From TrEMBL:
It is an enzyme of class 1 (oxidoreductase). The gene is hbd. Transmembrane segments: none annotated. The record marks 143 as: Important for catalytic activity. Belongs to the 3-hydroxyacyl-CoA dehydrogenase family. Residues 6-181 form the 3-hydroxyacyl-CoA dehydrogenase NAD binding domain. Keywords: Oxidoreductase. Pathway: Lipid metabolism; butanoate metabolism. It comes from Corynebacterium provencense. Residues 190-286 form the 3-hydroxyacyl-CoA dehydrogenase C-terminal domain. This is 3-hydroxybutyryl-CoA dehydrogenase. One of its GO terms (molecular function) is NAD+ binding. Its EC number is 1.1.1.157. It comes from the Bacteria.
Amino acid sequence: MSEIQNVTVLGTGVLGSQIVMQAAYAGKNVVAYDIKQEFLDKLPDRWEWMRGHYSRDLSDFSDEKFDAAIARITGSTDLSEAVKAADVVIEAVPENLELKKTVWAGVGAAVPEHTILLTNSSSLRPSDFADSTGHPDRFLALHFANMVWKSNTGEVMATAQTDPAVFTRTVEFAREINLQAFPIHKEIPGYLLNSLLIPWLNAAGNLYVEKAANPSVIDEDWKVSTGSPRGPFEIYDIVGFNVAYNIIQARQPEGSPLRKFGDELKSRGIDKGHTGVGDGLGFYEYDSEGSIVRPNPDWVIYED
């Protein structure tokens, strides 16, 4: 049996909740931490949403196994309590550098001496907040893709201060929770996937701001031209508006067209609780199985 049995996940949003279930379904005991009980109260609905996807996408699925995974999950709003017995802590809080520093300072003061400290940061450099943990030798990145049970990549990226043994153990841990591990040997903002994905999504955002075409038209052109199964606005819905907005805020200068696009993601989506597939409404409307019903009229520019 692995010596890593107790996992704490910080943040229970779209991806954080998926990470919780990914670890629990693999047999780990998981504490799901968030700052408010009302966020934790949403988890049962998320489990049922995931249950449908797991049943369709995983060959080893059974309701008994899924229920056993749920039973291994405990919620907490007390950070010190949430991490005090953790073998691994995985942080999935918003892409805000000062917030991450604050959270990791609290974690670092409360974790045992053996705990591996992992960030799922999408675009910030782990080394920019490694020292906040107080244990930079045990701190590195493990980056998950959305719809993690199916797109089960685990990008493992060390900083210059990470103990090589901890890096190796994290690669092993990623495999233990059913990820395909991708070791990254030099710290790169955005890892491998997002270094390729973000410029593509940014280009689509710019096309929308310039009112070049409707999102569904841009998506269809991309899919027909490249043979790709999804277009950029479909990917925005999978990534989630919250993640996309926070990346834009962190990486784009004030007054840029993409800042305008980010502001629209917030005002027309996030503020209304419409952030993509996980909520059933993003650039598209989705049915209960996550299939597209039609383009969301709120984002249609032209009557084509």
